[in-house]
From TrEMBL:
The keyword Transmembrane applies. This is DedA family protein. Keywords: Membrane, Transmembrane, Transmembrane helix. The lineage of its organism: Bacteria, Pseudomonadati, Pseudomonadota, Alphaproteobacteria, Rhodobacterales. Residues 37-155 form the VTT domain. The keyword Transmembrane helix applies. The chain crosses the membrane at residues 20-40, 52-78, 105-124, 136-159, 171-189.
Length: 192
């Protein structure tokens, strides 16, 4: 079953509309969606390493635009949209305490969340809600997401074939590690 799913994903990664799908996932991941764009980006680069920089650029632009939507949710619709999203991630109770500290560490919070698997939407919504200056938010988002996506693209472009061989030969292990990391990220968000 995993092999069929992997083959299907690799086939879709080379589809003519794959960049649009990546843009959509990158956009909504930055404001409401729980699955990171890496799920699409990695197979897309493995399927077509020559397009690694384009794939990273699409993910970057869409993610930052989605981050602006998250910022707007926090700034203009926190009670209606932002709070329920954060509560679904287990962060509802920590919001008030977090608000008082957030802007002191805002640059580092956006940078850290933008580079790591920490759900970026938490930071984008909080940035808008706490009134982080939009210029600082935008510049930091560009830096963080650019680093994340272009480092992944560069590594996969350079070492793609061995990575692909490793994944294909150890698909069960890779799937298990991915699920553990994904679940661990949600647990981390809930209890931080």
């Amino acid at each position: 079953m995993l092999k069929r799913l992997y083959d299907w994903t690799m086939h879709l990664a080379d589809h003519p509309k794959a960049l649009w799908a990546l843009a959509f996932v990158s956009f909504i991941e930055s404001s409401v969606f729980p699955i990171p764009p890496d799920v699409l980006m990695i197979p897309m680069i493995l399927a077509r390493p020559s397009r690694a920089w384009l794939i990273a650029l699409v993910a970057l632009v869409a993610s930052v635009l989605g981050g602006l939507l998250g910022y707007a949710i926090g700034a203009f619709a926190f009670e209606q949209l932002g709070q329920p999203i954060l509560e679904s991630l287990g962060k509802g109770d920590a919001v008030a305490e977090f608000n008082t500290k957030f802007n002191d560490f805002g640059f580092w919070a956006v940078l850290g969340a933008g580079i790591t698997p920490f759900p970026f939407k938490v930071i984008t919504i909080m940035s808008g809600w706490t009134g982080m200056p939009l210029g600082v938010f935008l510049a930091t988002s560009l830096l963080a997401r650019g680093l994340r996506f272009f480092i992944v693209a560069g590594l996969l472009r350079t070492f793609g074939e061995p990575v692909r061989d490793f994944i294909e030969n150890r698909l069960g292990l890779v799937a298990t590690v991915f699920l553990v990391l994904l679940f661990g990220g949600f647990v981390l968000v809930r209890y931080l």
